[in-house]
Amino acid sequence: MLRHSFKSLILLGLTSLASGSVLYARGEDIAVGGKWKAHDQITAFQQQASDGIEGEIELRFKPGLNDGSGCFPYAAVDKDGFHGEGLRPTGKSGGDCRDGTKGQLYARVGTSNGRTGILYSWYLPKVQNAEKHKHYYLTTVVWVHSDKCDPVADDYRVVGVSYSTGKETYDTSVSGQTLYSSGDSGSGPGNTHAIVGYDGQMNVFPSKDGADYALNPPMISWKKLSQPASEQFNGVQYEHARCPFTDNNIQASLDAAFNANFYTGLAPEADNCNAADTPTPSTPATQPEEPVSSSPPEATPSTPSTPTEPASDPTTSTPPTPSTTDTGDDDLIEDGPEIAASSLPADATYTPTP
């Protein structure tokens, strides 16, 4: 009887394998130091942007996520370097992973082809598309432009948005359909925050709905992660997933998401401002020389010169008049259709600063 049952299990496994629906154990994900925790026990970082202009544009263009089905975003790694162990991709697509208070948004600024992009990514503990596996990242890259020297955040405007369609692929053709909101936490005026849509599959896309119910978890910049957290991101080995913002992956991610058409007709970004701001002294015009006579010069009686009165008192110095230049900024012009400004849900529950 036992032998017959064992034989039946083998046949069942072969049948499942032939049909492509067999689900293997997901034990091949390897965390640094074996540091795993339950996916809902990972405490998110408090919102922290990079220092300086990078942090300002990270906040100014921070997107919201309309998550219609599947898992909500969760924090992947905590301040001590523990990684969420994920969930088996069984049951409902959003089973055990629809807690809107556990999320985290990861941000990292970089360049591709001399253009500035801000990569934003959400971690999911499972994805139940055709692949069905633990761990997944949804990613969007917001491409911005400013042609000013030493720009401030207000000088940048969105020129395009790329949406991830897989681990290493992006759709740049739908950028023009992106809706924008006024954002959260007073992070910037105007509609500068893309509203991203997700429906439980592998890809994200421009949301067709407003930001009234968009998820807006706290954003943590790569540069503000604790050392144990960044080491875990750089070292974890996923069986199927790929983290797009690690030191080894960030450049390839930006290059894959880049589309030169976003910058058609736009000047290169100013990267040599000091040289551009330094005036080049003008060269005086060369006066033609008098022809040299071959005959000896005639003697001319000298006439005492009449002293001229100086134009100003040499003992009195006149301070130079400072020059003024009007460098008024242009108003921000946002691409994409305007929508009514709305108040997004508050950030997730406050957590201690790591």
* Poorly predicted regions: 1-26, 283-288, 290-297, 299-354
- Based on Cα principal axes, name the global outline: globular
Structural classification: alpha/beta
The strand order across the widest sheet is 8-7-6-5-4-12
What's the tally of helices?
Answer: 5
Query: Beta fraction of the residues?
Result: 15-25%
Largest sheet: 6 strands, mixed
Biased composition (Low complexity): 275-316
Biased composition (Acidic residues): 327-337
Organism: Colletotrichum gloeosporioides (Anthracnose fungus)
InterPro entries: NPP1
Structure description:
- The protein has a domain at 40-263.
- The chain contains 5 helices and 12 strands.
- The strands form 3 sheets. The chain has a 6-stranded mixed beta sheet with strand order 8-7-6-5-4-12. Strands 2, 9, 10 and 11 form a 4-stranded mixed beta sheet that branches. A two-stranded parallel ribbon has the order 1-3.
- It is an alpha/beta fold and 354 residues long.
- The relative contact order is 0.20.
- It comes from Colletotrichum gloeosporioides.
